[in-house]
Amino acid sequence: MSIRTVQFNLTATGISPSAIQSAGIQGEHNATLVQFVLDYALMLKIQHVAGEDTPLYRIEAVNGAGEKFSTEPKQLISDTVEFLLTNQLTQSGTDIRIYLVISVLKNDDTLLDLYSFPAVLSLISLPNGTEVCVKEYTGLTELYKGAQKHAEAAADSAAKAEFNAERTEQAKLDLESGNDFLFIGGDASAAMNMDLVVDSLPDEQSHNPISNAAVTAFIKEQVEAARKEALLLAHPIGSYCFTAREINPAEIFGGEWLQVTYPSISDDTYSYLRTA
């Protein structure tokens, strides 16, 4: 799976990069891996201080809502510590603060903290009132799968809308001419002989004073409304749209969309997230 990795390098004197790092979008769970890499000199210093005691590490974190989380201490056996951003941290927007705490478990079972390395990550916040998708992604690959699924559903809905428009247009022509026409609805089909004739130029002697223009306008209005509704239903809140043109999906599907950026997506691809 293609998971975004944000790496921090640690020395005895500090952490780099020290600037805030991008970690994606609010609600994008399990899609960002935070990696702490301890240099050789730091590892030696920790081993020297620990002596015969056991070096440990834990992760302490604060999400955008100010809620605090901490992992259980684990033995430090490698120069690389990895931590996946779960929904506890990504359900709120703005900044996330993560601390890698290096400790030593003394023989008397007391815990002595040696280092605390702070890392700050930033999430793109969704507008207030936006429902955060609670699905936990295993990587950006899942985003592409979701986008492809919604694109296929939209294409299917558009094809159905086009078919219904053609069928409605044919029925209108048959209705105007007084011919028999086949009306298909759901699982029921029936051949209907229509005596109703819609006059092109109704007058006072007309038995059916309905204008073609009014019928045509009504049918087009209903078909267009059905098409827009189908396209919007195929792209629920939390859906992603990837396009090679710089055009807001709201112009095509309706709803409200936020343009987002993914480091692993090419510069000539535009990405949007439906927020309302």
Walk me through the structure.
With 276 residues, the chain is α+β, with helices and mostly antiparallel strands. The chain folds into two domains: 4-124, Sandwich (Immunoglobulin-like), CATH 2.60.40.3350; 140-274. It is built from five helices and 15 strands. The protein has helices at residues 40-50, 87-90, 140-177, 212-233, 250-253; strands spanning 4-11, 14-16, 21-25, 32-38, 54-62, 68-70, 74-75, 80-84, 94-105, 111-124, 181-185, 188-192, 240-243, 257-260, 270-274. Strands 3, 5, 6, 7, 9 and 10 form a six-stranded mixed β-sheet that branches. It has a four-stranded mixed β-sheet with strand order 2-1-4-8. The two termini are 29 Å apart. Residues 131-144 and 181-203 have low confidence and may be disordered.
List keywords for this structure.
276 residues, alpha+beta, Immunoglobulin-like, 2 domains
Quick description:
With 276 residues, this protein is an alpha+beta fold. Helix content is 29%, strand content 33%. The chain has five helices and 15 strands.
